[in-house]
DNA sequence: TATTGTTAGATTGTCGACAATCTGCTTGTC
DNA sequence: GACAAGCAGATTGTCGACAATCTAACAATA
């Protein structure tokens, strides 16, 4: 008999769906940084009472993409240049660690999954679906975290990913032009398949630095605009 | 006129107080791993309605010390040996990074604060207040994170700290004996004051490994007990 | 005029009640 | 006795209403 492992059943609470909806709205930039979330308005739009909506917002606050001030409101986090720098510098450290943990565990299933995700990025790129392009690229990079078999590291990465996705989406939205060249991930994938751990780790750093410069430029623009208020 | 900077006003919502109460109960081990939190019972004990309690629980779920299953309940996280290993190995990496970031920023205020926190640990040790001993020791180690001036790193550390504190509390509670020797932190503090970055980073690793072995032994005990059910 | 009180409106925080779901037991059937 | 169906109690999820608090505009006062 074939061994079937069923995934967990879908979360059927309103709360979970609201979380997903809000997260998506924030990470795609539909909700802008600093914007206030009016509970009554949103709950009416979603045809839901405020209770599950508020619980959902509490989760997103802890997730780090919303911020809440008692009796004042809940807002989408502001994005500063420093936040982006901080997130990226931590990301480098974590990437190195994740690759190191994953390295001895690589097997055929890993390589297959790597190819699958790489393919997804290329497809999104061809379709010029920028949102999906960001999503798939992050999923490609997330593989080493999933493979590292360290639950706390994975959790940390997922939190970080939320922000990175938000940053990229904002950046992309501001420039309104397609994201980086097509072949960027080629070397990354190749190195992960190779035999040189150090090289892979080193490239992870460099590769990150490519888009980093662009993001920073965008962030500095934000800074300037904010200081005018 | 002296420049006074007022800190933010105290959170006056019931939710915030509930979060603090519950967190403390969990981190000190008053609420045991795996234990279910009955909303009605707790809300009655606290003389609060279920709404703010549920919101508080949502926060602690995202914080990683509670886990929730729809329509089944919310439970204190289970502690497995692997969780402890994972948390510690990530902690090592983060410690190295935090020390590196802090290094060039050390000044007199840093050293003073270092001494102050070190003193707090020693005082708790003398008073044989084991809970406070754990708390102060973690605060001592947290200084480099606060000084590193990287908000995402600090956030990550704080999440990790919750778990570490819980693990130590459980370990201490199980053994029912005073925690490690008195002079453990002496070298750590001295190295942070010194001029050798590499030595400080290296010691942070070794130092951590000391208590690590003890914790692991406790965790393995947990594993055995769990497998009997 | 500048500052301080007051008030109305809007929004968040909290409450108590109801609906949906789960668990364990009982009942009925073979 | 084994097993499925169904019922009762307990618990979680959701709702609508009320209380507490904030904001901004306006009035009062020096």
Automatic annotation (TrEMBL), chains A, B:
Residues 12-79 form the HTH gntR-type domain. Pfam families: FCD (PF07729), GntR (PF00392). InterPro entries: GntR_C (IPR011711), TF_FadR/GntR_C (IPR008920), Tscrpt_reg_HTH_GntR (IPR000524), WH-like_DNA-bd_sf (IPR036388), WH_DNA-bd_sf (IPR036390). SMART domains: FCD (SM00895), HTH_GNTR (SM00345). Keywords: DNA-binding, Transcription, Transcription regulation. It comes from the Bacteria. This is GntR family transcriptional regulator. It comes from Mesorhizobium argentiipisi. The lineage of its organism: Bacteria, Pseudomonadati, Pseudomonadota, Alphaproteobacteria, Hyphomicrobiales.
């Amino acid at each position: 008999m074939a061994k079937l492992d069923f995934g967990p059943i879908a979360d059927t609470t309103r709360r979970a769906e609201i979380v997903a909806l809000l997260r998506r709205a924030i990470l795609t930039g539909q909700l802008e940084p600093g914007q206030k979330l009016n509970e009554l308005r949103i709950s009416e739009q979603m045809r839901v009472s405020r209770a599950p909506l508020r619980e959902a917002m509490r989760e997103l606050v802890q997730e780090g993409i919303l911020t809440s001030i008692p009796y004042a409101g809940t807002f989408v986090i502001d994005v500063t240049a420093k936040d982006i720098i901080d997130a990226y510098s931590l990301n480098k450290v974590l990437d190195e660690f994740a690759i190191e943990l994953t390295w001895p565990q690589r097997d055929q299933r890993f390589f297959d999954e790597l190819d699958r995700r790489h393919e997804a990025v290329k497809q999104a790129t061809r379709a010029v679906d920028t949102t999906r392009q960001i999503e798939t690229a992050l999923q490609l990079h997330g593989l080493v975290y999933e493979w590292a078999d360290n639950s706390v590291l994975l959790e940390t990465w997922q939190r970080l990913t939320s922000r990175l996705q938000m940053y990229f989406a904002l950046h992309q939205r501001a420039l309104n032009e397609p994201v980086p060249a097509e072949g960027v991930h080629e070397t990354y994938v190749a190195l992960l398949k190779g035999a040189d751990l150090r090289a892979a780790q080193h490239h992870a750093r460099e590769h990150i630095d490519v888009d980093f410069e662009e993001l920073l430029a965008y962030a500095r623009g934000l800074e300037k605009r904010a200081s005018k208020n």
